[in-house]
Amino acid sequence: MPFFDALSAVLPPGRIVRDPDVIAASSRDQAAWAPQGRAAALVRPQNPEQVRAVVAVCAEHRVPVVPRGAGTGLSGGANAVDGCVILAMEGMDRILEIDAAEQIAVVQPGVVNDRLRAAVAEHGLWYPPDPASSPWSTIGGNAATNAGGVCCVKYGVTRDYVLGLQVVTGTGELVRLGRRTRKGVAGYDLTALFVGSEGTLGVITEITVRLLRLPSGAPTTVVGAFDSLVAAGRAVAAVAASGVTPAALELVDRYCLRAVDDWKNMGLADLGDVLLLGRIDSGNEREAAELQRCFDTAGAGWSTRSTDAEEAEALFAARRLAYPALERLGPVLTEDVCVPRGLVPEMLARIEGHAKAHDVHIANIAHAGDGNLHPLIVVPAGDDDARDRAQRAFESILDDAIALGGTVTGEHGVGLLKMRGMHAELGPEVLALHRSVKAALDPAGIFNPGKVL
Amino acid sequence: MPFFDALSAVLPPGRIVRDPDVIAASSRDQAAWAPQGRAAALVRPQNPEQVRAVVAVCAEHRVPVVPRGAGTGLSGGANAVDGCVILAMEGMDRILEIDAAEQIAVVQPGVVNDRLRAAVAEHGLWYPPDPASSPWSTIGGNAATNAGGVCCVKYGVTRDYVLGLQVVTGTGELVRLGRRTRKGVAGYDLTALFVGSEGTLGVITEITVRLLRLPSGAPTTVVGAFDSLVAAGRAVAAVAASGVTPAALELVDRYCLRAVDDWKNMGLADLGDVLLLGRIDSGNEREAAELQRCFDTAGAGWSTRSTDAEEAEALFAARRLAYPALERLGPVLTEDVCVPRGLVPEMLARIEGHAKAHDVHIANIAHAGDGNLHPLIVVPAGDDDARDRAQRAFESILDDAIALGGTVTGEHGVGLLKMRGMHAELGPEVLALHRSVKAALDPAGIFNPGKVL
């Protein structure tokens, strides 16, 4: 049976989209620089069984499958490849279960992160992973990329909350991995293997996550303004040494502050060249004071801490607005390197060097508390030469992260943008292990081919 | 070259043991009931390169490799198989690095858990995973089995602390997996795949763990005595609903209490039929009071909470002594089922039913806070009929754990004792995925064959 006949046979009417314009609109993520291919079709499954049937047909016909959630990724992981079927999982968006006593939730992959957070909050529970995309990104996409966020420094990443998955495998079978219990070591941790595999091992059709108790009371925001990256780096080191564990510790540099000022006229750049924004969980006033003391001792020209929930949120605005403010200036090439946190100042200095050497503007947002930096390379739209220089700066920064004992991607994933960097980081023997695992679980090689590996 | 000549060629003199008595003494773990084979040799490597060379020789000659740490396992995972080389990793016991600023440690696999904890404590740091075997068991063994412990309910298991590994693969290569940074998503999470794989995918030669700050001040122990498992189960549910997160919540039943009394004459059984022992981190007096209130409201006949470090430790004695007290009575068949924590009372009732149905004594220790139960089946030494009945009770309990949505092993691993149970739990499709992964990473099938899968 021809491919499209076979596909139509397993889906209800209206679930296969072949209109090129509609397909094009769902053929890429937010990585402005990553290439995209031309998909053969977009499929909108309604349930796991339909996903299974589609994958089985694709496996038989050796048609690539590219799963996607909301398309908020920053590495090109969800970009179409030529001739592929895009599996748009957004429509599978039911919260199947919230078990308050067991502190777990079971959701379909299309559930938006913030929606899950709001739903479990009604039960006094909290789903911590908080990528900046949380108003739009889906739990399926978060799991596929092992998404991070600002609270990782204290609460960990998506992998730390995924207990179990239902997935469709490369042989077109629908299986359950992992568990619902708090502990469990029966067999290999295939759940952890699928989390962060960026759609290259199978399609996630259901996710079981563990939840924490919702913290009572609003957190405190502590802000420090510094006149140099070196001084801010000293403050980060002082926090690490102090024993305080902030729930977030973010760095925003002068390029970002100016971009936000140009947009929102907030006067942030007048405070200093670099802002550090710390968040302390409710009820730890002593820790908030200690965090501010760390900032002051390290040489903050100005510091403050919030006295109520509204102020705490307002003081985080600089961080929240930095990325959209930069996007207004032109296409942004987003880095995601992570280095040992003590080397954040050294890495920032090297980034500054690459900006000069390659004559590009590089702004920095960083999850400073865990060494995860987001250098943002901005070039004027349409300037091909600047784009080439930016590309070279991007790769140089990846190499420096590796040289400092770090990784090319802390939380965004490899996708298309960081394949060379990842290969350099892992080396040929470990890459060979990856290829063995990929071949074992996706023997037909249909899942997101040409990504990651 | 004959196998032993090839082995001798890659090791210095004295590293290969062929004396049958010495080999026999290192041919099994603490699972009294698991079968053991006859090893061809015991090898005591001194460094990762020697491990690599031994594995390469074994792969070439298709000789099974059984890695072992301190042999404290409870599932037969380290038991010799016929004709194997036992890789005794205890001698590779160097703490290679403690980086206080980054809060990580790098250790060889033979480092004993308590030794690591003591070493990092000198830097004000804490390695949380605390299996009961911590005075003897090694970090390599802990990682290979993804060991748990009593503090998991708040602080997680070994996997949550292993950032990176150095391993020897099935093709005899020495590679690094994972990272030293707090976050990282470059490639598949092969580190998590190796953690808990019980020596079936490769040999761990180095472990990088993340550390927490050492809590300041002693924890508080809260004890409640109950006249029934049902009342104790009510208390566990009340704790879950209260929002209090104890750092441990252990249950010890009347069989254990009597065994401890018979040994140490502590009068524990006079307090009640079941004890719950909770631990609250220092500085949370309100939570300690709330925990005690949960116990009292659920019907505790007696309760108390510690006022100093010494008392806190003393009140935990019932839990610490329970297992050795039972071992005095005869061979112990140790279960490790984990169920949704709300079903702990139901699971305990079913266990009681199986004890009656099969006419065996079953004592219970449980990590009640996370639903991980350790029914301990004790039979008189040499009573073959009782042993058969115990075996049947063991399997029935596994089936009930699965029926309640749980797992056959929460933290001890599959080894030899839980292979049938694990197969029943995972089902044929997921087992096939396991076999694919195993074949991909251990193509010669030399690593711990006949275990787990």
From TrEMBL, chains A, B:
All residue ranges annotated as the FAD-binding PCMH-type domain in the record: 35-214
E.C. code: 1.1.3.15
Q: Which UniProt keywords apply?
A: FAD, Flavoprotein, Oxidoreductase
- What cofactor requirement does the entry state? FAD
Q: Does the keyword Oxidoreductase apply?
A: yes
From which domain of life does this come? Bacteria
> A Pfam family in this protein?
FAD-oxidase_C
Matching InterPro entries, A to Z? FAD-bd_oxidored_4_C, FAD-bd_PCMH, FAD-bd_PCMH-like_sf, FAD-bd_PCMH_sub2, FAD-linked_Oxase-like_C, FAD-linked_OxidoTrans_Type4, Oxid_FAD_bind_N, Vanillyl_alc_oxidase_C-sub2
GO molecular function terms listed in the Swiss-Prot or TrEMBL record: (S)-2-hydroxy-acid oxidase activity; FAD binding
| Entry annotated with the keyword Flavoprotein | yes
Protein family according to the UniProt entry:
Belongs to the FAD-binding oxidoreductase/transferase type 4 family.
**Name of this chain's protein:** Glycolate oxidase
Provenance organism: Nonomuraea endophytica
